[in-house]
Structure prediction request, 930 residues.
Amino acid sequence: MKNEYILEVYNLKKYFPLEKSFIEKLLTRKKRFVRAVDGISFKIRRGEVFTLAGETGCGKTTTGRLILRLLEPTEGKIIFDGQDITHLTGEDLRKIRRRMQPIFQDPYASLNPRMKVGEAIKQPLEIHQIATGDEAKSLVLDMLEKVGLIPPEKFYELYPRDLSGGQRQRVSIARAMIMKPEFIVADEAVSMIDVSLKAAILEIMMQFKKELNLTYLFITHELAVAKYISDRIAVMYLGKIVELAPTKKIFNNPIHPYTKALMAAIPVPNPTRKKKLILTGEVPVSPIDVPSGCRFHPRCPMAYEKCSKEEPPLIEVEPEHYVACWES
Amino acid sequence: MMNLELLRKLWKRRRVDFILLIIGVIIVVATLLVAIFAPWIAPYNPYVSVDDALLPPGPKHPMGTDNLGRDVYSRAIYGTRTVIFVVLISTVVSLVVGTVLGLISGYFGGSIDRVLSMIMDSIYAFPGLILAIAVAAMLGPGVVNTMISISVVYIPTYFRMIRGQVLTVKSQLYVEAAVALGATNKIIILKYILPNVLPIIPVVFSMNVADAVLTEAGLSFLGLGVPAPLPDWGFDLKNGQRNLLAGYWWISTFPGILIVILAIGFSLLSEGLNELFNPSRRW
Amino acid sequence: MPLLSVQNLKSYYILGDEVVKAVDDVSFEMEKGEIVTFVGESGSGKSTLGLSIIRLLPYPGKIIDGKIIFKGRDLLELSEKEMSKIRGKEISSVFQDPLTSLDPLMRVGDQIVETITTHFDITKEEAKSQARKYLELVGIPAERYYDYPHQFSGGMRQRAMIAMAIATQPSLIIADEPTTALDVIVQAQIMQLFRRLRDELGVSIILITHDISLAMEVSDKIGVMYAGHLVEYGSTIKIYEDPLHPYTKGLLEAVPNIEAEVTEFKYIPGNPPDLTSPPSGCRFHPRCRYATEKCKRQEPKIVVRNGRLVKCHLYGDEA
Prediction:
C-alpha cells in the first residue's frame, strides 16, 4: 500500500553546538548553538519535484543531509513512505538507503579517486547484493550508456581524474540510479557544472525520473534552475521555511518580502531590463545570534513591531500557497 | 600504481630531485644485493680470526683486521645482512601494527581513539634511541629483543600518520556518498579509506628505515643490540673505539661510514618518493 | 585614445613539455568609463586574461607575446618596478575571496590607509579621513573602520576590498569573480556599487565572470571567451539582440532565465575543451551546429561585423 506522501518532515531541527574557548567554558554555563535548521515541516508527494531554495546558510543543505540520515536530527520527525526513520540505524537504515539516494554538488569530491568508474557504479549492486560478476558488469555498462558516457567500455576503466566535471556528475547519477531508488535528494547537483551543460545533466535526471518513477528533493540556490524542473518550491531563510507554493504561483505571485527581494535580485540576461533593488543589508554575520521574532525583520522593508516580537507561522494564504509573514 | 609517467615528470621538471632519488635507490639496492650475495662476495668468514689482529688496510684486507684478527671488510659485508634483517623486520612490524591501530582509532573515534592516542603520544614523546635503550635494557640482549625494541619506537609514527590521514579521508564527500549508498563499515574501511591512505606509507616507511638504521646501530654500539659475534656495524663501531687513540682507525671508521651511507640512502629514497607522489609545487 | 588596448596577447602555462595555451591571441579595446565583462566557462582563459593585464600570472604562466597598451604605454615593456607603481594605483584588482586577501590581523580601516600611503605622499591623518570616506562610498558605515575582517560578513568584506581598490583613485579596476561566493541579493548590491563607481567616479571596470546573466545586466561591453580565444566582443545590447558567434548563441539559449517561459532543456552538446590539446582549427567546432570542414582545419580570423569582433568562419575572413 503506497503512501501518497513519500516523505514527511515534522518540526525538524538541527542545532550544532559551538566549540567554546577555554575562557568561555569557565565564565559561562550557557551552551551556544548554530541553529542551522530550526523547525521546518513539509510533505513531498510521490512523483513530484520538490525544491528547497535559499541562499548559503539558510539550512537547505543541512535539511538534505538530515533526510538522508547522514546527520542526526536534534528534534523532529522524518517519515519515509510511512515509516519513521528519524532515529533508524544499522541494517534497517541500510535497507532504507537503498530506496533513497543523494546526488551531491561537487563532482570532484563525490567520487573515490582510487576507484575506477565501473567499480564505483558497481558498488551499490555489491553492497545490497543485487547482482555480482558479469551480470553486475553488464548492468553498469548499460547505465553508462544511459547517462551518455559512450563508449561505456572505455569509461568503465577510467578513473575520476580522467573525466570532466560534467562527466563525473553523470557517474554519480549512474551510481545513484543503478539500484532503482524511489527518492532522490539532489543537493546543488548542477551548481558546479558549466552553464552550457547544466541542462544536459538536468535532462538526464528528468529522464530517470520518468523511467523509474522517481520523486526528487532538489536543493539549490539557483532559482532560475529550479523554475525549469520543480513542481513546488519552498524558500528557506535562516533555518525556516518562509514561503512554499507551486512553481507557477511562487514566480507569478511571490508574497514573502524575502522571496520578492530574491527574485528581484537574480540577474536576467537582458540588458534592457531596468532593475530595482528592494533590499539592503545582508544575512547576519553570526549565524548563532538569530534575530528575535521573524528572522527576516531586520532587513524587511515592511516590518512593524509585531515582527520583532513573534515568529509568524506558515499559513495558507491561497490554495497550496503558504507564507510565514505577519503582513499577509 | 607507480607509473613511469610520474618518473618522467620528475626527470623533466625537478632534475636534481630525480638524481637524488636515483642515488638513494642505488644505495638501497646495492645494500640489498650485498646482503643477499654476502657469502659469495666476502673473502673471509666474518666470525673467526683469519689473520693477525690489528692489521692496517692492505692488499689482503682492504679494510684491515680488527682486534680479534677478523677481516673488517668481510664483517662489513655480512653486516648488511644484520642491518637489513633486523631493521626491515622491525619497521615492517611497526608499520603493520601502527597502521591497523591508526585505522581503527581514526575511523571509530570515541574512547578507543582517545585511549590509543594518549598511549601513542606518550611513547612518541620519548626520543627514539632513549626509548629503544629502555626497552632493550628491560628485555635483555638478543636479536628478537632488539627487533622488538626498535618496532616499539616506531609504532606511534605510523599510528599518527595513518590516523591523521584516515581522519582527512573520512571527512571527504565520497566517503559520505558511500555511507549514503548503504556501505558497511567494513566496505568503507577496505575500499574507501585504506586505498586513499596507503599512498603515504612508502614515504613514511623509507624515512622510518633511515631512522631505524641509526637506532639499531646505536643500540648495538651501547651493547644492547644484537649479541656478538654477529657482524654488526654498530657493534664494530664500538669495538674499534678503544683502539682509536692508539691509531687503529680502520676498525671503527669503515662501519661508521657505511651506517651513514645507508641512512642517507634511505633518506634520499624517502624524499624522492615523497617528491614523486606528492609534488610540492604544482600549478 | 582608448583607455586599454590589448593586442595579440598570448599567455601560456608551460611546465616541461606541457603547454596550456590559456590565452591565445586575444585583442580588444576598452574606453574610459566602461564596464566590460569577460564571460566564459571552465577553461576559457578569462581569469588568465585578467591576471595578464596586471602581470600577476602565477608560475608557470608566462606572457609569450602581445601588447597591453594602457593610457598609451605598453605595460609589457615596463620593468617590474615601474609596473608595481601602476599595479594597485592606476589599475586595482578585486578577487573572489576577500577572506584570504585581507590581513586578518589588521583593522580594516588601517589596511585601506596602508594602501593609500603606499601610493600617495600624504599624512596618516589625511589618509585616515580618506579611508573613512571610501568606506562610506561603498556602503560601509565609517564606524566600522576599527573592525577586523572576521567581524565583517562576506559582502562587507568584498566591499572593503572594493574600497581599497578605489582608494588609490584608479582608472581601471579588474574584478575576477567578485561576487561568486556571495548571495544573490548582496551580488545585486555590489553590481549597483560598480555602476555608481562608473557613473560618479568615471572608473572603468573589467569584470570577469562565468555568469552570463550577470554580464548582460551590468556591462556596457561583453567579451565571450572560449578555450583561450575571444570569440565575440562588442556592445552588450547588440550582442543581446543579435548574438553572432554560435557559442554565444548557445550560451544565451542554455542559460537558465528566470523571466523566460521554459519549454525544453537547452544545452551545448559535447564537453569543455582540454587546453593541453585543444581541438584543431576553430576550437569550438566539435560542439558547433554550424561546423563545416573548414572549421576543423582552419582557425577563423577575427572580423568586424555589426559593430563588434567575431571569430567565426560564418562571417567571412576579411577583417
